[in-house]
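Possible regression after last week's pipeline update?

I re-ran a chain I had predicted before the update to compare outputs. Posting the input and the new output here so someone can diff against the archived version. Not blocking, just want to make sure nothing changed silently.
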Amino acid sequence: MSNVIIVGGLDVAELAFYMFAMFFLGLIWYLRGEDRREGYPLEDDLTGQVEPAGGILTMKPDKFFKLPFGRGTVVMPGESRRDPMPQNITDRAYPGTPFEPLGNPLSSGVGPGGYAQRADRPDVDMFNRPRIVPMRVAEHIVVEGRDVDPRGLPITGLDNVIAGTVRDIWVDRSEHVIRYLEVALTDGGTAIVPMPMSKVSRRAVKVDAVTGAQFVGSPTLASMDQITLLEEEKVQAYFGAGYLWATPARSEPLI
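New output (post-update):
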């Protein structure tokens, strides 16, 4: 029994490689299960029918997220809460064809104008106050004296047509940054414009996402002192869609 070989030619480097391979395979299995808590199960591109989520090796039990300030508990993946298939689109010839919206494409909710069905309540700060509010509510926040205050300036679209006048600035009380501009439209009504799409100069504010006439169709808010998570999605989707659909030329190929 003196010539018995237990491990053969196994050395430390080979053992470390096997351990790494087993760890990596385990990590893949773990991540493929975790990523199904949100975003899965997948759905068919044409019918919206929910497809099978996978076998027992890729599914994990529900995870419970307790929301702050007594807002209940969210279960993921939980019951299937899929968004309904859009109805304001043309029929597609074959799977993979892009959606073509009917009516106003900026408010269609498809393509670059798509948005997530977030909660219809405002985001809150650590004190349970609405996080994004106009400066008339957050009176402790002011515009730095060396910067241009856009309030009172005319605001134009990509065609340089004046859509209205900036009435107020909506700020993030948690991060002290400007999120939106409140615009009093020339034809009446109010528009909320994302600040990242606005270029402020000393004479005017220009928004290159939409034309001056298209400000009128932008989403309105239920309250002019706060904006909900769902309303944020809709506002940003409306103006974001303008980079493709504001003018016919933008939706055409460059060559």
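Follow-up from reviewer: compared with the archived run. The domain at 1-82 is CATH 4.10.540.10 (Photosynthetic Reaction Center; Chain H, domain 1). Marking as no regression found.
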